[in-house]
């Protein structure tokens, strides 16, 4: 039998975190959860009318940022990354470097952080470090033969 008066001064309950046998704590928690959900879903009228740019909209980026993303994307594709993943990584790099979409204009400029590009460049050559000297040499011979063959085709 559970007492109706607790040592914490709440009738019908016990210490916080300790359920009672009649389930009143569970009901109270359910009601609080529902109230929190209802309060969260009821937004102010002006917040509901606020228009956001659709995701993937690149209109706020400068031409330079678009060129950077295209160049980075081509580099990823050249390394064998898929088209969609290359585009995602390229825009993530541009955002990290420039701080997202920028509008041109006086006094809007901020310095760019070239750390993300530097990191990507460093990681790009890491594959060669895991190959043996014989594998690297064979790859170099194959590349030289390809360059020679392409030069003969052109000239």
What is the residue-mean pLDDT, rounded to a whole number? 76
Gyration radius from CA atoms, angstroms = 31 Å
Secondary-structure class? mainly alpha
Proportion of residues in β-strands: under 5%
Q: Label the overall shape.
A: elongated
Give the tally of β-strands.
0
- Share of helical residues: 55-70%
- What does the largest sheet look like? none
End-to-end gap: 99 Å
Q: What's the total helix number?
A: 7
* SSE series: HHHHHHH
Q: Can you tell me about this structure?
A:
- By secondary structure, the chain is an all-alpha fold.
- The chain is built from seven helices and no strands.
- It has helices spanning 24-41, 45-49, 63-78, 83-98, 115-124, 126-129, 133-154.
- It is elongated, with a radius of gyration of 31 Å.
- The N and C termini lie far apart (99 Å).
Give a quick summary of the entry.
With 155 residues, this protein is mostly helical. Helices cover 59% and strands 0% of the residues. Helix 3 (63-78) crosses helix 4 (83-98).
Secondary structure layout plus pairing:
Blueprint: H1 24-41, H2 45-49, H3 63-78, H4 83-98, H5 115-124, H6 126-129, H7 133-154
Features:
elongated; mainly alpha; 155 residues; 7 helices
């Amino acid at each position: 039998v559970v007492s109706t008066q607790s040592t914490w001064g709440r009738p019908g309950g016990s210490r916080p975190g300790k359920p009672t046998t009649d389930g009143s704590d569970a009901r109270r928690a359910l009601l609080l959860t529902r109230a929190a959900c209802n309060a969260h879903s009821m937004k102010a009228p002006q917040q509901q009318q606020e228009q956001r740019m659709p995701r993937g909209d690149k209109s706020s980026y400068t031409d330079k940022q678009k060129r950077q993303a295209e160049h980075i994307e081509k580099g990823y594709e050249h390394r064998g990354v898929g088209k969609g993943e290359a585009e995602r990584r390229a825009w993530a790099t541009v955002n990290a470097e420039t701080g997202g979409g920028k509008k041109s204009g006086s006094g809007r400029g901020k310095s760019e952080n070239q750390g993300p590009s530097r990191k990507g460049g460093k990681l790009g050559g890491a594959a060669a470090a895991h190959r043996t000297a014989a594998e690297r040499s064979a790859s170099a011979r194959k590349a030289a033969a390809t360059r020679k063959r392409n030069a003969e085709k052109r000239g």
